Amino acid sequence: MHSEQILKQYLNELKLQVSDSLNIDQEKSFKKQSGQSELILISRNVGKINKRNTEQQRTIVVTSENLYNIDKKTIKRKIQIQKIFGVTVSRASFEFILHVPSETDYRYKSQENRDIILFYLSISLKLNNRDGLKIYLVDQEDLQQFCLHQKTTDLQKQIALHPKTKLLFLYPHDFQLQYINMLNQPTKSLNPNHKITVLFMNDKMKFRIKLEDFQKNAIINSGSLSKIFLINQKNDRQKIWALKTIKSSDIDIDLMEFFLKNYEIEPFIEQLELCIRQTDLIHFFFKFIKGGDLFAHLQNVGSFTENQAKYIIAQVGMALQSVHEKGITYGDLKPENILIDEQGYIYLTDFGYGKLRVYQEYKKQQNINFSVEYASPEYLKFGDLTRMSDWYSMGILLYELIMGISPFYNINTEVTIKLICQGDLHFPKGIPISIECKDLISRLLQQDSSIRLGFSNDFKEIQAHQWFQEIDWSELKQKKKELPYIPNIHESVLIQEQFIKLEQLCDDEKGWY
What we know:
It comes from Paramecium pentaurelia. This protein is of the alpha+beta class.
């Protein structure tokens, strides 16, 4: 395979692109001095620190074959990737050293670019069949003592300068999280709560995370296992997230880590941005959705038109389908767990991050916090929770969106359970609803899950129902459809008070430790 194809394929696997931000690939002078098969991975400006401790402006270019040190447009040095032994990295400053045995080392400094350069260097090493990027991690701010500025043929003399710390190996596929967590682990910590482990990071180009970088502002909502906070980045108040903190004892950690490792952004599922473990707590940072939850909108409008409900349910169905394909039963569908954005598109929330549930037909699950009126009869009778329970709940949701109330609602919970288990479904007179919609609701609310719509082929079977015949599924999934229900949300207003009610924090809730 051609080298360019190999590089593109590997970057696609890593979900990255070439990062030639200085457009070195367009420089004729560089092209003349580089190999024809050579491909640029990254170009960045850095400070080079010489033996007199003077910082000079330089450009680093990492290619598929070499690393270049460039002064303006002049290549001062070209180092074969194969010759780079490793790097020394300071946790206390932004300095780093490139160690090149039998040649001179390079000492650099860059607050913005150090970490991303090292990431792409690990990629180049991988492409050259090297065994990972070797890293010495040290606490000294000034790395002069570890840098050999004069060329020597005495390899032992050079290696003797290397830090007397453990040599670590980082590989491109897990470079980011390992690197972040290396920098986050202090050598001496008076308080174990200050130790954090980053489990997931959606932004591939972010390499430094501290809880102190974020500020809690208010409580958005309270769930069965946690409160949901509105937080922002301290140095940029416009960057906001929804934070959910859960005790690790309330999570299947192994299953959660498996889920995070295979995480992909889905169009109708709340987007996870960051996940941090702090001793016995797990912090989930989600993209903030301005419209709040569907329950607030249902309260505001009383009920939705059948056409509005159709597009909401279509999105919910696609979201549940993607959850089921990952082997998970959602298990808690209700309006409070559906968020809605400015364009009317929905996002499932509160799934998989509280109690991840492995989907297995008719497997009994314990400790599920259901809203009783959305619980399936097989769960209430036998404790059976499967994907068919999700389709039952979607039938309840569809009924409530149009009627304004769930079909088996009663102020007395015991009565609600009895009504669900009896399964006597009635449609109020005076509320317009099509025969096709009634049929879909009735087939989703079948008592016997084995004859419930969706049993044979999951959501594909439901999609084929006549009620959905006008929907262009591809257009909807790509979010190109102008939806029949668009919330009245002012773009300039950050928090929509008619849909999101903020609660003040108590003193204990403001901090992280």
